[in-house]
Structures are given as C-alpha cells and as structure tokens.
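User: structure tokens for this one?
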Amino acid sequence: MSDLILSRRSGSIFEVTLNRPRERNAINDEMMNALSEAFDQAEREFNDGARAVLVRGAGRAFSSGIDLNQFLTLDAGLRGNLFPFTARYQAIFNKIERCSLPVVCQIQGYCLGLALELALACDFRFAAERTKLGLPETRLGIIPDVGGTVRLIKLIGPARAKDLIMTGRTLDLSQAVEWGLVNAVFPKSELDQGVADFMAALSAAAPLAVSYGKRAVNDIVDNASDLQIEAWAQAQLFRTNDFQNAIKAMIDKTYPIDWEGK
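Assistant:
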C-alpha cells in the first residue's frame, strides 16, 4: 500500500490517515487506490474484532481536495469519456459508505471538494474550530461528482445543497452543525479527545447490531441511480473550455476568469 495512506489497528479502532501533509493532503489517484485498499483491510479487521474506522488527515489539514495538477495530465480520450474515471472514484467512496464498520471522519483545517465528498461517505463527521468546509467545484466549471451532490442532498436537503453546490462557498461551522453536515465542532486542542469519546461509545455497543443498523439506514436512502446522474453531468462539463481555463487559473492564481456561459 502507498505510504500516502497510512492504516493501522489501535485497539478496537482501525485508523486510516491521509498522509500528504506538505500538500495539505491533496488527493491524487495513488491516494484513492490506497484508500480503497485500506477499506478492504477494514473489512478484514471487522472480522478480527475491530469496532470502528477513523479517517483523518496528517498535519494541519484534513485535505484541500483533489490535486488539481491531475487534471492537467488527463489525456484527450479520458476528457472525452469521463465515466470510467468517475465511476472508479464513486466505487471507492461507496465502499467506505458500505463498510461493515461505522466510519468516523475527523476534520481540521481544510475539507474541500473531493475531501468533503470523502467525509460525506463516512457515517459521522467531527470538526475542529475554524475548519473550512465547502464544495468549490462550480468555481472550476464542474460539479461535485463523487457523491457530493447525492449524499449532500440526502443529508441536508435540496435547498441547502443547492446553496453550497451552486455558490461554491465555504460553510460556517455553526451552520454545518445546525444543518447536520457535521455532528459536532470542538476546539482544536479538544478534537482528538472528543472523537475518541464518541468512538468509545460506538465500540461499547454490540458490533453486529451497529453494523446492521448502519446497513438498514443506508438501504433506506440508497443512492446508486443518483450517482449515475452526477457522472453524466460531470462528463459534459469536463469537455468545456470553462473547466480547462478554470483549472489553469486556480493553479496559477490568476482569478477572475471569463466564463463561456456568462
């Protein structure tokens, strides 16, 4: 497994850590593949007595989102048919959502774009004060396509989801708690303990009941067909000049840009 994702068993908790702190844990293809492997291991740990999974980021940020430099290396064929790329990433986050163990996401610093989509695939989200949460994809000329629209709508409702997706704004943490996007916010110095206390409560419950309870809720809000709608919309947007210009502007820090459809 890549050292960009670290995984280890600590008592009854299986820990998965994004480990690219110098780049604010910006997520690239290698990290996504390693994340998939880590959750394969989590399933094995469930059978060996693990009670919960903790997902967190090394360093000062959980994750700034997808590594934008990846987009500059996409070949023309992939830009013309994005479905396989999107479907693979969706499958990885679906694996997290469907993990037999409850999955807790510990967030600090930044949790943007693909990182927030990762957090949404987890069962619970706890954030440190001053964490920046958001889905800024529309500022790149695209939309969230790895469950970001689907899971957000089912978590906070369509009107609030439209607010975050269409504006691309950073969400105030008090609103995030009020809307149910995060379970609780702690001072940075108290985040570790707050998450540990919650995970101890999870671990004290009967493991099969916890697993089946999670499965029952997930099945009630099943999202398989909705994810295909995300993939379709994103495939159209990836072909536009808006997207290519926005990526370059974001990397070069040359905003604002002119949009095709203004």
